[in-house]
Amino acid sequence: MSEPCQPSPITLSVLKSHLWEAANILRGSPVDRTDWKSYILPLLFFKRICDVWDEEHEAMLAEYGEDYADEHRFQVPEDCHWRDVRATPKNVGTALAKAMRGVEAANQKHLYGVFGDAPWTNKDRLPDELLKDLLEHFSALGLGNERVASDVMGDAYEYLIKQFADATNKKAGEFYTPRSVVRLMVDLLDPREAESIYDPACGTGGMLLAAVAHVRDRGGDPRTFFGRLYGQEKNLTTAAVARMNLFLHGIEDFIIERGDTLRNPVFTDPSTGALATFDVVIANPPFSLAQWGREIWESDPWGRAFAGLPTDSNADMAWVQHMVKSMAPRTGRMAVVLPQGALFRGGVEGQIRQHLLKKDLVEAVIGLAPNLFYGTGLAACILFLRRHKQPERQGKVLIADASALFRRGRAQNFLEPEHSAEILRCVQDFVEVEDRTRVVPLAEIEKEGWTLNISRYVLPPLGADIPPLPEAVAAFKEALARCREAEDNLRLVMHEGGWLE
Q1: 398, CA 20 to 30 Å: which among 84, 131, 193, 486?
Q2: How many structural domains is the chain composed of?
Q3: Which domain holds residue 257?
């Protein structure tokens, strides 16, 4: 007698298409597209947990003849399974919220708060019919381990996050960093097996995942990171997404905490009364954050204003100082994304920058192309610091102008793998490349008033910022069309207001 035919594994392309179709179900609904991720990602994770539980249940019945609760990866309490919600005839949102809270309560160590705080019971936004459509759509595919491997599920989840970032461009910078920039930062930091990794503004967890992937790609064992991945995120929904993201990539032993890092850092060392320290610190904090908690830093118990107290209108250097204090004493290194203004602004920011340079903590500064990040066309930079530089790098800073390294897109520019490889090679080799990098002694930086303004040290080649003629013509036509549309709108407003006959 032949074995029963097993369903074939679901490919990444099929899974991507199916998941994005869930977003299309919400299109035209009362749910704003900026909130799509708050509903679709928890549903995906809930379905995955229940399908894996079912697989484990069937395997135990086949082997032992009964189910053992402690053999399950996660507990799914009675009446809290996906099928229970699916069978609910009305008040579906209430049933779903109850099931999710039940799963969280039964798995408090790992899943508490993981489904976020979406208003599932708001029928004006999510009527029963719409929720039933979503549930039926997700029910069409089995999402257990037998059908979908963790790496495929994780990649599909990352795809969804990227799609939501594209759909909500202006707000995406709050939770999503372009993965090309993340990979560059991780490659610069070069995390090793068993090192601790910390992201104080972790968003959806992409930087922590990239650190794990970096070790795996180099033949290391990513399991040595278990229990050594740490993140803090202020936004409740985004923190929940980060935790789901790591789980769906097969990583279960990590610590993602919700909270305001600048006002209330959660990772501390009780034995010393200081901040906890880590081998690798990485972040893309919100640019130039105002009202960030300066009043607390005036008497900060963690001593983070060691180089100066930033103004209330800009937290860029507060993040930098927090990260410096979080670096391990000997092995610590950090990479942070900042607006380029942080490299040359004066006042207290200049004072802080001078302190970091005098302490010889700054190893490299990389100026990136404009319009790489969601929600801002500004050119950003990567600041790379190290507790202890190699002897040949001491007293020097590598300054790199990578502003010409990008692929131009219609609404956003892109850092391609070959661009990242060129930047990485320059920093790793710590060499000068004409029109690209300079190794600058601290004495020269001091003469320049402790500015790290890239153009003071590296000048881009003439014409580097001039696009090819077809691109320039297309950009001109698009700008002209927008101008005419704005004129038409203005004319309409003036006419309706009685200013035009």
Answers
A1: 193
A2: 3
A3: 169-456
| Shared-domain flag, residues 223 and 262 | yes
What do you get for the CA distance between the two ends of the chain, in Å? 87
Distances (CA, A) of 289 to 195, 307, 448: 30, 19, 27
| Rounded CA separation 46/103 (Å) | 9
One-letter amino acid identity for 383?
L
Contacts of 450 (CB under 8 A, 6+ apart): 350, 353, 354, 357
Query: Considering the entire predicted model, what is its pTM?
Result: 0.82
Shared-domain flag, residues 387 and 476: no
Provide the residue type at 128 as one letter: D
Spell out the residues 6+ positions from residue 382 whose beta carbon is closer than 8 angstroms to its own: 181, 184, 185, 188, 335, 336, 337, 338, 364, 365, 366, 368
Q: Quick one: 17 and 90 in the same domain?
A: yes
Q: Please tell me which residue, 149 or 305, carries the higher pLDDT value.
A: 305
Residue 105's CATH number: 1.20.1260.30
> pLDDT tens digits for 159-169?
888 888 777 65
Chain position carrying tokens 């704003």: 32
Q: What are phi and psi of 414, to 5 degrees?
A: -135, 135
Q: Token pair for residue 484?
A: 């005419």
* Statement to judge: residues 343 and 277 lie in one domain: yes
**pLDDT score of 3:** 45
**In a shared domain, residues 180 and 317:** yes
